[in-house]
Amino acid sequence: MRFGIVVLPDQRWTVAADRWRRAEAYGFDHAWTYDHLGWRDLIDGPWFDAVPTLTAAAMVTSRIKLGTLVASPNFRHPVRFAREVTALDDISAGRLLLGLGAGGIATGYWALGGIAVGVYALGGLGIGAHTLQNDPNMLRILSAPFDRGPS
Measured between alpha carbons, how far is 87 from 53 in angstroms, rounded to an integer? Predict the structure, then answer.
């Protein structure tokens, strides 16, 4: 059995770095951070992006796997996101766990004024599960960087 922990991206790095170090020191196998624009009652406070947060976490840890909980196509263009997570996976020496989901109409959606960025960037294919299900290139684009093939 493996155990994981969620580390909220709600603190400046001077505080957050120690959270990630402690997650590894406590013996957790994986640590996740939310990939949202904000979260419930924490919406008015600081909230940092998942990819840079996990990249920084990779620099202060060496063993623990690091994951997105959960990346949504509603706010990210898949090509740009694939490049970002490729860099993160490389910096973390292959420790990235990429959690992908359909997302939902929640705080982040309304924070953008009701605009789902990924939808428009993909030519209006639809949001959430519809995008993941009906765009045959979406999962291929996002998974291509992890095809390690011959090195």
Answer: 13
Distance CA 137, CA 26 (A): 39
Exposed, middle or buried, 58 (CB in 10 Å: 0-12/13-18/19+)? Answer: buried
Weakest-pLDDT range from 43-47, 87-91, 117-121: 117-121
**CATH T-level fold of 4-146:** TIM Barrel (3.20.20)
Question: Nearest CA to 97 among 73, 71, 72, 65?
Answer: 65
35-87: pLDDT as tens digits = 877 666 766 778 899 999 999 999 999 999 999 988 876 677 777 888 898 89
Could you give the C-alpha distances from 11 to 15, 17, 23, 129, in angstroms and in order? 6, 9, 15, 31
- Domain locations in the chain? 4-146
